[in-house]
Design a protein that fits this description.
This protein is of the alpha/beta class. 39% of the residues lie in helices and 18% in strands. Strands 3-2-1-4-5-6 form a six-stranded parallel beta sheet, with helices on both faces. Strands 14-13-12-15-16-17 form a six-stranded parallel beta sheet, with helices on both faces. Strands 7-8-11-9-10 form a five-stranded antiparallel beta sheet, with no helix packed on it. Helix 9 packs across helix 10 and helix 12 runs parallel beside helix 13. The radius of gyration is 33 Å and the shape is elongated.
């Protein structure tokens, strides 16, 4: 190991110890926010420590908790501080001075940037992790805060929804150290391009991740050698398979022209007139053309009374006159109602051309906007639905020419207006779990073979819904994105996340610290069945492109400063981080008789 690297590492450790003004040598992380992402990030931070109490976590939450979010206060060993706004006073109360990392995870880009300025005033050297929707601001934010990471959970999760909508196994393709890697089915790639096995999915009820025998994995991580990624291939197949259908705009316009009650009344009156016209033709013994003429004249203009006709003919004549009196105002009402309904439907986007093979996206929030844009980039026809005509993605939908239907996707007529009965997939990504579930069930009622991609915030709820209603594709944005936020806060490089069913695999580059459990151990100790798979090794002092060994010898000795590129489950990555981190500092002795500190601050 080179001396400069050792000096840098030693100075960093000493600086971190000096910054902890309260004398506590344990790493301290401050997380701000209160939603599912905060919950999973905190759980991930705790999972990286082998023993309870070797890390301190403070969560700054708003005074009022939303009932639909998981309660971070229920996590044992976490200190909670309530603050109306993220200012310098709030950060001082949270003990930010001397902290190792700060995660600003509110869903407010401007608010997070302002909070970062306040945090810098309290602790200039803290590592910042910011959650932002507008990734175009990321470069400017990094210039303002050099030791920072700007991440978008929507950008991370959207590819998983796109892949699921297209029926692809996983969306992941990424470039690292001069190679482009992607997840593919083993039968679709050459054997020499396979890097490692990912999962055995032959039994949908029991998916095995990172099986010990890699030859049993039908999903593999492979190098892309001129072959497009799986998601792009699926999109191309879908575009080629889609055939133009005749335009049924007239039928749809007629169907939505008038209200249901007016339509039934008009049809009933016309039915009476048609029946009487038939009876007149039989009674008068005239041709069908003459019968039609007599019926229309009698209905619309009346007829001269003729007392010499028999009673049946006189009754039919009176009934026809009464039907004519009812028909004229009905026609007037239908025309007026139809004009009003047509204008409202056109304004809301409910009158649409009949479509087939498209994808319906419900909810144009952070995730829905990304999903819509990526599908459009692939050439997939998209129809969007949102209650709010001014939703975040509404302006983008108009620029892209994506039809936007204003309405409640939980209503069957709204889904039918989007031609959900003929669509390729229904992607439901609004922020309301109940509305999402109702939209998914109504979509299945319209089209029983419909592929439904459902966003649910509650992971346990998603698991139960998948089994109870046979909706096999449900995604949690926070669960997919949390490993990247956790890795950034720990200053670990999370390269990519791979969602598979209800599981997430992580591709990460982990440095080996001096004095860690792996310092001096062979590479063979890195692999862990069903947990960690070593895919590359970069020895200390080697450059990124020339020094990466993509076929590492398991007998090679690991040195401090080496970087391990692994594919791991979340629990496996936590285990690896513990093995590659320096030994935890000794805790200061606790004076006898003092009570044990409480794990949470109740204020």
């Amino acid at each position: 190991m080179s001396e400069p690297w050792m000096d840098i590492a030693r100075r960093a450790v000493e600086s971190g110890l000096r910054r902890r003004g309260n004398g506590d040598p344990r790493p301290h992380y401050v997380v701000c926010g209160q939603d599912a992402l905060v919950y999973h990030v905190v759980k991930g931070l705790l999972a990286t420590e082998q023993r309870a109490g070797t890390v301190r976590i403070t969560v700054v939450v708003p005074p009022r908790r939303r009932p639909d979010n998981p309660d971070v206060r229920s996590i044992r060993g976490v200190r909670v501080v309530k603050a109306e706004r993220l200012d310098e006073e709030a950060f001082r109360r949270a003990g930010l001075a001397g902290a190792d990392g700060l995660a600003l995870l509110h869903q407010d880009d401007v608010g997070n940037i302002h909070a970062a300025y306040c945090a810098q005033a309290v602790e200039p050297n803290v590592r910042l992790v910011l959650r932002m929707f507008n990734t175009r601001l990321a470069g400017g934010v990094r210039q303002l805060f050099p030791d920072s990471a700007v991440l978008s959970d929507a950008s991370m999760a959207a590819p998983a929804f796109v892949a699921a909508a297209l029926g692809e196994v996983a969306p992941t393709y990424f470039r690292h150290q001069g190679r482009t890697l992607h997840v593919a089915r083993r039968v679709d790639v050459r054997p020499e391009d396979v890097v490692c096995g990912v999962a055995d999915t032959r039994d949908p009820q029991r998916i095995r991740l990172l099986p010990a025998d890699e030859s049993t994995a039908d999903l593999v991580l492979a190098e892309a050698t001129g072959q497009p990624a799986g998601t792009e291939l699926a999109a191309r197949r879908l575009v080629r398979a889609r055939r133009p259908r005749p335009m049924l705009m007239t039928l749809r316009a007629v169907r939505s022209f008038a209200s249901r009650k007016l339509g039934i009344a008009t049809i009933a009156v016309l039915g009476v007139i048609a029946l009487l016209g038939y009876l007149i033709s039989r009674a008068e013994e005239v041709s069908p053309g003459e019968a039609l003429y007599l019926t229309l004249v009698t209905t619309l203009s009346g007829a001269d009374p003729d007392t010499e006709k028999d009673a049946a003919a006189q009754i039919m004549q009176v009934v026809l006159n009464l039907a004519g009196l009812a028909l004229i105002p009905l026609i007037t009402a239908v025309v007026v109602d139809g004009i009003v309904n047509a204008r409202l439907a056109l304004h809301a986007g409910r009158i649409q051309a009949e479509r087939a093979g498209h994808v319906v996206v419900v909810g144009l929030g952070n995730v829905g906007t990304r999903v819509m844009a990526q599908l459009n980039d692939f050439g997939i026809e998209v129809v969007a639905i949102d209650k709010d005509p001014e939703a975040r993605g509404a302006s983008l939908a108009r620029r892209l020419g994506v039809p936007l239907i204003e309405g409640d996707a939980a209503r069957e007529e709204t889904l039918r207006a989007a031609s959900v009965e003929n669509c390729q997939a229904l992607v439901v990504v609004s922020t309301d779990d109940v509305a999402n579930l109702q939209a998914a069930l109504n979509g299945r009622a319209v089209n029983e073979n419909l592929r439904v991609v459902l966003r649910l915030f509650d992971d346990d709820f998603a698991e139960r819904i998948s089994s109870a209603f046979d909706i096999g594709i449900s995604r949690s944005v926070s669960y997919l994105a949390a490993p990247s936020f956790t890795g950034a806060l720990l200053n670990r490089a999370v390269i990519a996340t791979i969602p598979l069913d209800r599981h997430v695999l992580v591709v990460a580059e982990v440095p080996v610290a001096p004095g860690s459990a792996f310092d001096g151990a062979p590479l063979s100790v890195v692999g862990r069945p069903d947990g960690v798979r070593l895919i590359a090794h970069t020895p200390v002092g080697q450059t990124a492109h020339s020094g990466v060994d993509w076929s590492p010898d398991p007998r090679m000795v690991i040195n401090a400063g080496d970087r391990l590129i692994v594919l791991a489950r979340r629990a496996g990555l936590s285990w690896l981080l513990r093995q590659t981190s320096p030994p935890p500092p000794a805790l200061p002795p606790q004076p006898a008789g003092l009570p044990t500190p409480r794990p949470a601050d109740p204020d």
